[in-house]
Amino acid sequence: MQTARALAHELGLPCVSPGAGSVLSLLAAAGSAKAVVEIGTGTGVSGIWLLRGMRPDGVLTTIDVEHEHQRIARRIFLEAGYASSRTRIISGRSLDVLPRLADGAYDLIFVDADTTEFEACTAAALRLLRPGGILIVNGAHANGRISDPSARDVDTLTIRETVKAIRESEDWIPAIIPSGAGLLTAVKR
Ligand SMILES: C[S@@+](CC[C@H](N)C(=O)[O-])C[C@H]1O[C@@H](n2cnc3c(N)ncnc32)[C@H](O)[C@@H]1O
């Protein structure tokens, strides 16, 4: 069996590091997560970490625009021992799919897709999470550029704006966990 990580590597697709993955499991377990949304399925690396921490009856709703990535992830989840009833795999662009999900129905939301949509995804997360629910955004370090004031590319600017908006908002209790690519985490008040 090829691992999800090896398959991601073959496709040239970034995936969470083991350090960041263990934080995902930890936060899913600490939040007794039963309903989780993942934006950016990839080959299923982060999905497996989330499922590991979730309640045994929990369902991972995972969104990706690429059918091929999700075809691989579906197989990976089954091979890892997670029945198909534990995953709801939705194909489509996140900003088209998120409006169809129910308000206040989710315990944890993990954002790991198009960086330029981070702000829109975090706004959607505020609507989708229950009070006390957890938001995690992967890539908060912007590949090391976050603290470089001369870095003005669109990805870095969007990440900076997303971190600032969450830090300054009364709606969130935020923290940055420096694992892997940097995890911007926040609990909804
Ligand atoms: C960094 S990879 C996700 C890796 C995965 N979370 C992991 O750690 O295994 C980003 C994924 O987001 C998907 N993606 C990119 N833009 C998207 C969008 N606008 N909506 C949904 N998925 C998108 C890509 O197809 C890709 O599979």
TrEMBL record:
The keyword RNA-binding does not apply. InterPro entries: Cation-dep_OMT, SAM-dependent_MTases_sf, SAM_O-MeTrfase. This is Methyltransferase. One of its GO terms (biological process) is methylation. One of its GO terms (molecular function) is S-adenosylmethionine-dependent methyltransferase activity. It comes from Actinoplanes utahensis. Keywords: Methyltransferase, S-adenosyl-L-methionine, Transferase. Gene3D superfamilies: Vaccinia Virus protein VP39. It holds the Pfam family Methyltransf_3.
